[in-house]
Amino acid sequence: MTSQADWLRGTLFALAVVMTGPVLADNKPDDGKVTNFLLDNGMEVVVIPDRRAPIVTHMVWYKIGSADEPPGKSGIAHFFEHLMFKATTNHAAGAFDRAVSAIGGSNNAFTSYDYTAFYETVVPQALEQMMDFEADRMRNLILNDDVIATERDVILEERRSRIDSNPQAVLGEEVDATLWQNQPYRIPVIGWMQEMEKLNRADAKAFYDKYYTPNNAVLVVAGDVEPQVVKALAEKTYGKVARGPDLPPRIRPIEPEQNTRRTVTLADARVSVPNFSTQWVVPSYHTAKPGEAEALDLLAEILGGGSRSRLYQQLVVKQGIAAEAGAFFQGTMLDATNFTVYGAPRGDAKLADVQAAVEAEVARIASEGVTSGELEKAKDRFVRSMIFARDKQDSMANVYGATLATGGNVRDVEEWPGRIRKVTADEVRQVAARYLNLNHSTSGYLLPQTQAGN
């Protein structure tokens, strides 16, 4: 079980190119294209056939994440991810895990800002059994005070080990809390310690009853399966779960206009090599104007997406001042998202020199743009990486699940490659100039203790 605020960044959404066919109507012959349909209780189902290996990935995505938590209850979404592995009225605690292990499969779960997902990878013959288990725990968990107390101690220890003992994670939380002035993305997915300590049975029961319903869930099945078989099994298992009350739209506090440059600094004796990151609030695929998110994705690729990027070539290869330098755009979010650049010095180079060089590349693109050659090569790299990703059925399940859980649909995934191909060099320059304004940014610095105050 993991808590991953940045588990699905924009590059994961980009894997969608491998599925480019139209959505099929129910019960048509399977020709390897993606099918989707609704159960009578409102649960959406997506089937992604892939017969190259006799395995299947089964995922249930709930449209509930840490950004949907009630005020003062931070961490309840991740806490409940843990509770979903406890006993139900039909199965003892651990029975699900043992059943998966007995057939040589694997299972886990993760929580992010906008969704919580549970998944199993098993042989196709076990698909119905996985559906039975997931449908059962969707409504039949046993939530008593002993279960709550035990698992609350687990998540508190997880926070101590993963966050409080890790200077980079501590700084990341503080940067998020500074970047976001109003949106709930400012609150860590795992929660604030003082609020996690107070989570109780009433909190868990209210959360469960409100959000863990079939009409707030998306089922994604990828692998060696027939769509019509998946539909029959889904109706037999999930279809028996009663529809929950209709939930209101996921309307969250809106981020105000940002007009300041902010910095967050952490000096720690455990740090040997300093690093920095600078972030901006930018639109996501769900909130952007047509073409903007695609341009931001390509901007991140050209600026700092890998060894061919400007930052890597300039700072690591040519100047030799950086041990690392890059950029990323976290596009698959329900609300506005962030665009990040980062770097760390190499040898005797100074962190300030690395940051200045990174900022110079950002400013250069904002003023001069990118060349048509750069742009086409970036698009080609996207396409090639996405084609290779077709070898991973779980990646396909992740793409569709994350897209549908954040306001998108199957057609958005299928049409994405064409939209990427239409992005122009000037559109990349425009989003850089519009959004990457250093006067409206938040920078985080992780320094060795000896550099504090420098």
Characterization of the model:
There is one protein chain. This protein has 454 residues and is α+β, with helices and mostly antiparallel strands. Helix content is 41%, strand content 17%. It has helices spanning 10-13, 76-83, 95-102, 127-139, 145-164, 167-179, 193-196, 201-211, 227-236, 292-304, 310-318, 351-368, 372-389, 393-405, 410-422, 425-435, and strands spanning 2-3, 35-38, 44-49, 56-62, 106-111, 116-122, 217-223, 262-268, 275-282, 322-329, 337-345, 442-448. The strands form 2 sheets. Strands 1-5-6-4-7-3-2 form a 7-stranded mixed β-sheet, sandwiched between helices. Strands 8-12-9-11-10 form a 5-stranded mixed β-sheet, with helices on both faces. Helix 2 packs across helix 8 (201-211), helix 10 crosses helix 16 (425-435) and helix 11 runs antiparallel to helix 12 (351-368). The longest helix is centred in the middle third of the chain and has 20 residues, at 145-164. The chain starts with a strand and ends in a 6-residue tail after the last strand. The model is unreliable at 3-30 (pLDDT under 50).
